[in-house]
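Re: that backbone. Tokens:
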């Protein structure tokens, strides 16, 4: 491994996931499923674009890039573990925060974030009932507010600019500056990295700004997919991921899987590797057909898979359940 790779958190995610997959007993990747899914996506992939990012659900104002940046960092500081509350979904987080910023442009000012408490986060998202892990969400926001004030004049936009248009550098900065984004674990004596919220923040900045201005990155293709709890469901339903009977029974019975357990780690790692292999297969197919797919990358592939999950949410089997701040 070269020095540069040692510094590359996205490489660390790929390497971690590949290592886990070399040991897996509970989850396997069906290469026939990869081939089939790549064939079915060959017509859509050339149209993948950062511009598919939803600017109506999310806060967007072309005149306020700083405010958009602050919104996206807060969004992805809180973008985890909705499932303990029946009916609570990502759209309530994105939409609630958007309304908060539209109602009060200072709602996400770093000073406000640095002093927020649990009920304050609930009010920010316009939720009536206590949020899952509500005090943790408040602690994570206080950490973001304090660190922004300490190092970036309170502005997420300054943090983004400090990365010099490198997605890899921005993942490194986010995981260096904010403890809450350090999505890693020790498994069988090894440190494994997933960095889901740090990477999805970079993906969301790229998407919100349609790959221009603050959202311009020269290496966005370095990001991996975002190891959440939705995309594994889609890959399982599409015959790409196969669960051992014991794991399938636990997931389908909605039993909680402990963070860092073999079950949870194998699901997350296999999802990362499967999407990397799917991307490679799609790129090979399109190149062989002489077709261009300028924005085919793990980010746009991830978004397609996640939205495929949203489209089929009623019919798909349950997602795995891990109580965590990471995804
Ligand atoms: N891998 C991946 N995970 C994603 C997203 C998003 C939303 N991204 C939007 C922004 C731009 C794109 O166009 C997407 O529309 C949320 N999540 C994760 O899902 C879970 C919530 O699910 P549910 O309970 O159903 O709301 C939770 O862990 C959340 O962190 C994604 O894109 N990729």
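Recovered sequence:
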């Amino acid at each position: 491994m070269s020095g540069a790779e040692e510094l590359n958190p996205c490489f660390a995610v790929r390497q971690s996931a590949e290592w886990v997959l070399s040991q897996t007993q509970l989850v396997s990747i069906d290469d026939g499923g990869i081939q089939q899914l790549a064939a079915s996506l060959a017509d859509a992939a050339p149209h993948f674009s950062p511009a598919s990012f939803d600017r109506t659900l999310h806060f967007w104002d072309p005149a306020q890039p700083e405010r958009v940046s602050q919104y996206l960092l807060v969004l992805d500081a809180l973008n985890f573990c909705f499932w303990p509350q029946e009916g609570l979904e990502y759209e309530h987080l994105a939409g609630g925060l958007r309304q908060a910023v539209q109602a009060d442009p200072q709602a996400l000012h770093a000073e406000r974030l640095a002093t927020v408490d649990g009920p304050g986060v609930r009010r920010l998202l316009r939720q009536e009932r206590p949020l899952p892990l509500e005090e943790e969400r408040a602690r994570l926001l206080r950490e973001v507010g304090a660190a922004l004030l300490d190092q970036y004049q309170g502005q997420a936009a300054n943090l983004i600019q400090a990365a010099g248009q490198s997605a890899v550098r921005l993942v490194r900065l986010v995981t260096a500056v904010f403890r809450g984004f350090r999505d890693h674990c020790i498994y069988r004596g090894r440190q494994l990295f997933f960095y889901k919220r740090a990477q999805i923040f970079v993906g969301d900045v790229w998407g919100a700004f349609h790959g221009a201005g603050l959202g311009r990155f020269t290496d966005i293709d370095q990001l991996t997919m975002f190891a959440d709890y939705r995309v594994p469901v889609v890959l399982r339903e599409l015959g790409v991921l196969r669960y051992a009977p014991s794991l399938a029974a636990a997931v389908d019975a909605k039993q909680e899987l402990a963070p860092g357990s073999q079950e949870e780690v194998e699901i997350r790692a296999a999802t990362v590797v499967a999407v990397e292999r799917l991307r490679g297969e799609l790129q090979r197919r399109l190149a062989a057909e002489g077709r261009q797919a300028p924005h085919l990358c793990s980010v746009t592939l991830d978004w397609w898979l996640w939205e495929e999950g949203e489209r089929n949410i009623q019919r798909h089997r349950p997602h795995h359940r891990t109580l965590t701040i990471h995804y």
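The chain has one domain: 3-311. Residues 53-54, 79-80, 82-83, 89-90, 204, 207, 226, 228-231, 302-303, 306-307, 327 surround 56B (CB under 6 Å).
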